[in-house]
Amino acid sequence: MVKKIISFCLAAGIIATGLWGCSAPATPESDMSGETQARREEDIPRGRYVESSIGITLDDGEHVADVGQTWDKELELYTIRDKDKTASRYVWAGDGWEKQEESMMEGLTFPYDTLHMIYGDDGNRYVLYQGGDDYRCNMARLAEGQAPQPLLNHVFSVKNDRGYYDIRADFVAVSEDGMILLSTGRETSAYSQTGEKLFSMPQESSSSEWKASGLLAGNHYITNGSKSFLEYDISRQSASAAAEYAYRSMDLSSMYAAMAPDGNGGFYTADAGGIHHMNQGGSLWETVADGTLNSLGLPSAYIRKLFVGNENDFYVWMSQSDLHEIKHYTYDRDMPSVPLETLTVYGLDLENMSTIRQAASMFQLSHPDVRVELIGGQEGGGSATVSDTIRALNTELLGGNGADVLILDGLPVESYIEKGVLEDMHGILEPMISSGELMGQAAGPYTEADKSIYQIPSRIILLIAYGDQEAIESLASLEAMRDYQSDPSHLPLRPKYNYENLMRQVIALTYDEIVDSATGKPRPGKIQELIETVKVLGDACGARVSFDESEDGGRGRVYNRVDSMDGFSGSEFDSVDRNMSAAAVDKVRGMFDMPLLLAVQKKNGYRMEGVNASYLPNGVIGINKASPRKGLAEEFVRFVLGQEVQSSDLLDGLPVNYKAIDVWVEREDKGGDLSVSIGDGAYSITGSSPTREECRMLFETAAHATHPIRADRVLVEIIVDETMGFFEGNMPLEQAARNAQNKADLYFSE
User: Fold this and answer.
1) Residues 6 or more apart whose Cβ sits within 8 Å of residue 69
2) For residues 97, 102, 108 and 109, what is the CA-based torsion angle, rounded to 10 degrees?
3) Which of 132, 542, 554, 678 is 20 to 30 A from 190 via CA?
4) In the predicted model, is pLDDT for residue 30 greater than 50?
5) Whole-angstrom Cα distance, residue 222 to residue 235?
6) What confidence score (pLDDT) does residue 340 get?
7) What is the pLDDT of residue 355?
8) How confident is the model at residue 322 (pLDDT cuts 50, 70, 90)?
9) 174 CB-near residues (< 8 Å, 6+ apart)
């Protein structure tokens, strides 16, 4: 689930109340007199929620299945054992988990390692789980010393025309009078305990195995709508909502946030932004605990459930990969409401840089007196173009202002180095380089002739090619691509795309051929050769400027999609597997990208190999030389590149820290199996989570990727924009090339 922790501000800089903005002058703490410092600390507002952790330690072969809270607000943990697929129950005793003699589910087995405990308003426990070989839902009422009593068997046994069970409940609640609410996709239906359907309530489908955004408190049932939480009064047995509560944001994290009742008719939610409160019948959200200052804001954190304690405290069950924890939030009246010091981090597109966002949250957890403020230059809407944003940023930086840490992706880095904007990081990185902790292919290309290092990627996105060997080899140059495609017996070198995507891909693959790395400017004649190459490839694959969305059974939407600056959308497995193109070029950003890639390789006997020994750097980090918090900025850079941050698989690139690779390889949870069906089942394939050996093979391939593709974002946009006229048929080839060259010359003269 997407986690948003970005604070927005203009590239030109603002000063937020009580915080240093991205360009505000700062007075170092050391320059303050003792009296001034004491006065400042006396005047600051105090009081905020602080986080502690309740660990969950399990025996070998034991898995967390569910966490719940009893009517007495006692926390319970349910686990399932691999050996016999039976459940165990634990109770939190304040200093550890105490195993109970009875799980109350004796006689039941859980073949899919899942169960959901429901604490009914009628005072009974219920369990919902999938059983058998067909994922059929089952529900039973539980009581100590008694066998589980099955419920709603005839409801769960109904199959549709395709042979699948109709009811796959993603939330269950039981009212005080025993009415059972089953949430299934676009409705929640109410049943008697004998299985009589009473009424239904429309809702938005969550597309989740179990959604946390459901709540029954008395007669008030809250579920998801399209733009708001819907509140139904179940005593009315009506299909019309009695009230609506607008989502705190339209981010998925907020729309499907974990819920808990406040005991007064209102409710709390927990999402990446924190813990929030809504009064019954209210319209304004109150943020109780700021998620940017604790683990809730971690991109790697999956928030499963929220519980309210007895002492104005909160518990949040969350998981990160295969690690489960319960976070406990208590109010500390002596803690400063807002950290005294702010470290600012600027990037054009921080929304898609999970590692930087993860590091920001983790850094704050280890530095309670520091707030890491993320500033997204191209986020938050507005009409400013990328070039306008960069121009404003350049003015800021050249004036000796700007954020402390810069994420340099898409920025004119060579110009910054030339003008002395960036701090040399060799001193802080040398120990990590000399010890072998930092990968050589990450540090080496960014080390200048005088050993200075002004930038370094926090992740690398590997380009993996598979398919026809001759086709793969042709990706080395513009000429080789044209030569390959000139043979009419060859399949298209590239899958079917619109011309913009195709142009971006060819630029990425041959950027150093097109652009002089010393000057950053296009080489003479290369833009025209680029256009010619794209035209040859486009003729072969059936490219157009745009496609009707209905083309090829709705594939037109896929052909039109432009997902990134480099044009590579992720995986091209189906195109090469179905002989629609000669070679696939996949982006490998994490282990979730591996199952289908590996499946097609195994099926066709292809081998995994890199493309031109290159990689796409991501989250390239540098330090503003003018930063008044340079020491803190240096510490943050080391933290981003360290093992703790790099060990997380956040699907934004592979680690650049060797120590983290073993964690990636040995991790049990690598994304799981993945199945894809295309064209109403006409084509389907299933891939498995990579084995340790396959992970090692991936990292061995990454070790040979020594060449970063360092594209100037503005230059790429110029070339794409100025050449589309040729593909639209409105401009001769020579004119399109000349327009792009002239616009590029103007850009570099500014």
Assistant:
1) 75, 76, 119, 307, 315
2) 30
3) 132
4) no
5) 14
6) 87
7) 96
8) confident
9) 118, 120, 121, 122, 124, 126, 180, 181, 216
Are 406 and 423 in contact, with CB atoms under 8 Å apart? no
Query: What are the pLDDT digits (tens) for 261-275?
Result: 999 999 999 999 999
Instruction: State pLDDT tens for residues 555-604.
Output: 888 888 887 889 998 789 999 999 999 999 999 999 999 999 999 999 99
Question: How many whole angstroms separate alpha carbon 648 and alpha carbon 652?
Answer: 10
Query: Does residue 24 surpass a pLDDT of 90?
Result: no
Residue 224's nearest CA partner among 199, 250, 198, 194 is 250
d(CA 583, CA 687): 19
Answer for the pair 416, 642: CB distance below 8 angstroms, yes or no. Answer: no
Residue 21 has pLDDT above 50, yes or no: no
Query: Rounded to an integer, what distance in angstroms lies between the CA atom of residue 156 and that of residue 165?
Result: 7
Are 193 and 154 a contacting pair, CB within 8 Å? no
* DSSP 8-state assignment for residue 560: H
- With a cut of 90, say whether residue 141 has pLDDT above it: yes
Q: Do 91 and 100 form a contact (C-beta atoms < 8 A)? A: yes
**CA 410/CA 508 separation, integer angstroms:** 13
d(CA 423, CA 432): 17
More confident residue, 260 or 443: 260
CA 698 to mean position of chain CA atoms = 21
| pLDDT of res. 161 | 78
The structural domains of the chain, with segments of one domain joined by +, span: 50-336, 460-617+665-749
Angle between helices 630-641 and 426-434 (to 10 degrees): 30
If we measure between CA atoms, which residue out of 230, 246, 245, 306 comes closest to residue 272? 306
Q: Which helix (H) or strand (E) holds 633?
A: helix 630-641
The answer to whether 110 and 65 are in contact (CB under 8 A) is yes
* The predicted structure's pLDDT at residue 167: 87
Which of 469, 503, 471 lies closest to 485 in space, CA to CA?
471
CATH tag, 50-336? 2.120.10.30
3-state secondary structure of 81: strand
The helix (run of H) or strand (run of E) holding residue 63 is strand 62-69
pTM value > 0.85:
no
CATH number of 460-617+665-749: 3.40.190
Which of 106-120, 160-174, 448-462, 585-599 has the weakest average pLDDT? Answer: 160-174
Structure tokens given for 96: 């550890």
Structure tokens at 617: 């750097």
Sequence-ordered strand ranges (E) for 468-525: none
Q: In 488-624, where do the E strands start and end?
A: 583-588, 609-623
Q: Which two tokens stand for residue 577?
A: 């597997």
User: Helix, strand, or coil here: 431?
Assistant: helix
Among positive and negative, which fits the CA dihedral 279, 283, 285, 286?
negative
| Residue type (1 letter), 171 | F
Kind of pairing, strands 405-407 and 341-347? parallel
Query: What value does the mean pLDDT of the chain take?
Result: 90
Cα–Cα distance for residue pair 292/279, rounded to 1 Å: 23
